[in-house]
Amino acid sequence: MTRGVKVVMQAATNPLALPAKPGSPRRQRLMRLLPGILLTGVIAILATELAKSAWMQANGISALTLAIVGGMIAGNTIYPLISGLSAPGVTFSKQILLRAGIILFGLRLTFQDIGQVGVVGVMIDAIVLSSTFVLSCWAGTRLFGLNRRTAMLIGAGSSICGAAAVMATEPVVRGRAEEVSIAVATVVAFGTLAIFIYPALYHLNDRMHWLSTTPFAYGIFTGSTVHEVAQVVAAGKAVADTAANTAVITKLVRVMMLAPFLVLLSAYLSRNAEEAAAPTAGTAPPAPSQSWRGVIPWFALGFIAVAGFNSMALLPRSFVSAAIDADTLILATAMAGLGVSTQVSAIRAAGIKPLGLAALLFGWLIFGGFAINAGVSALFARALGH
């Protein structure tokens, strides 16, 4: 009797004996992502509702700030128990949803807004990036006794765009896995700290009237000095929508500098025979296609495309308003994912020296970055006769 006849006979006598039809790959992937997305989504919804309270609004505490706090609480309490089930969805939230949220963030902007940052913003970004990276290389090796790879990875994360810059720089410097983990832990820790310190400093200065500043100037300062894109969004929205818009534009200009930064770094290392010819034990030099994968910030291009479309004023205001509300929830979900992934144990395992370097760079980004912002702005104002 053939196998087909056997199957028919089994179906006639016992329908449950039929072989199960496997789910489609897309459905299987969705089921893997669902637990983590539900976890970050619930945190985001709670944060969004809590942020609507009068006290939160009066104190400049946004839904994104509350989402990352809630995520960190969950990440260091219940998440270790369910990480095997939830990890794919959490990663999806903090990576894919973040980029989707940044693209939709373009609905808040027009090209007229982008033009306001201008040459000043580009110049500030370039000076902050280069000075921070050089300081990291010098202080990391001379003051803290770190190897150059670790110093460069921490410097890249602090000066450009956080964990994404660390991952993009790793093939160029040929960093070890533990060096990459340490660098990511430090930039995530201090970038998260910036979400709370930057708005607090702005509101304190607003009360004490120490310095003359505006939400626009705060946005350029935040976008040019805070580590991650998501952290920039949170720190900006904690002050004002104008600050968030300017901060995101300035930050995306800084993100776009990642590619030329890697080209220059690779050229520099190729001149140093000792650094370039000493690959990590047990690893082979990465192929060029692998080294440059992910360098082009496609989400930044999508952000610009959406902002350009929004500049033409073709969409109804009601649709744009609803899309902005949805984008806030998406970004809050991404922030929750980032918070869930921030483990206190990983920060503790990084040790004193890498944390010391990251703290030094964080201080430089605040105080040195402010001086660069003020100096470049004053220079251009003087050149234009303002």
Folded structure, characterized:
79% of the residues lie in helices and 0% in strands. It has 19 helices and no strands. Helix 7 (148-161) packs across helix 19. Mean pLDDT is 81; it is low at 1-20 and 286-296.
Entry keywords:
0% strand, globular, 79% helix, 386 residues, mainly alpha
Rg computed from alpha carbons, rounded to a whole number of angstroms: 24 Å
Q: How large a portion of the residues is in β-strands, by DSSP E? A: under 5%
Series of H and E elements = HHHHHHHHHHHHHHHHHHH
Annotation field: number of helices: 19
In helices, the fraction of residues equals over 70%
For the termini, the CA-CA separation is 94 Å
The helix-and-strand class reads mainly alpha
Count every beta strand, where a strand is a DSSP E run of 2 or more residues: 0
Biggest sheet descriptor:
none
User: In one word, what is the shape?
Assistant: globular
Overall pLDDT metric: 81
The low-confidence parts are 1-20, 286-296
